[in-house]
Amino acid sequence: MDFLFIVLAFWFFFIGSAFGSFLNVVVWRLPLGISLNYPASHCPKCRKPIRWRHNIPVIGWGMLRGKCYDCGLPISRRYPLVEFLCGCVFLSLFYGYFWPFIRDGLNSTVGLSLLELMCISVTYMLQVTFFLTFLAAGLILLDGNRVPKKLFLPLAILLLLRLCMAGYGI
To answer: How many whole angstroms separate alpha carbon 156 and alpha carbon 130?
Structure first.
């Protein structure tokens, strides 16, 4: 189980930090009405694209020593901090919800039904989405921008799904 613990910890931290990396893009582009997927990640100062190896969450900023590879101007420390924070939240929520079942083994007396697993998964996604949405909103406000209403759309969809599940007693 120790190996499984390490693999899952790394995986959920990495996934969370990747969401944190995308959150940085959302916080910067959404208030300005810029597309979230085009152009690809680039230095906001010299506009040169960020190479894939420098775009690895948390690690990329450290590899660059906090400076753009092309123009050498500083990149905000907020980028790796948001990525790290998101990685930690994804990891801690995952272990809070799922680790007891993994630790005891999937064939133990705990035995989750598919419906229970789905309910736990949706609740996990809802809490992660709450965190990401309100972190993004807070950072947008911190930057002095207005929070676009469409930022709350994924949260509203998941909340409706969870309410529908609750309506069926799940």
So the answer is: 10
Q: What is the distance of C-alpha 2 from the center of its chain? A: 25
pTM for the full predicted model = 0.82
Cα separation of 40 and 55, whole Å?
11
Nearest partner of 28 among 15, 44, 17, judged by Cα: 44
CA distances in angstroms from 119 to 27, 72, 114, 141, listed in the order given: 30, 48, 9, 33
Residue 67: strand, helix, or coil: strand
pLDDT band at 9 (very low <50, low <70, confident <90, very high): confident
* DSSP string covering 84-125: HHHHHHHHHHHHHHHHHHHHH-TTSTT---HHHHHHHHHHHH
The helix-helix angle for 153-167 and 114-142 (nearest 10°) equals 150
How far, in Å, CA of 119 to CA of 125, rounded? 10
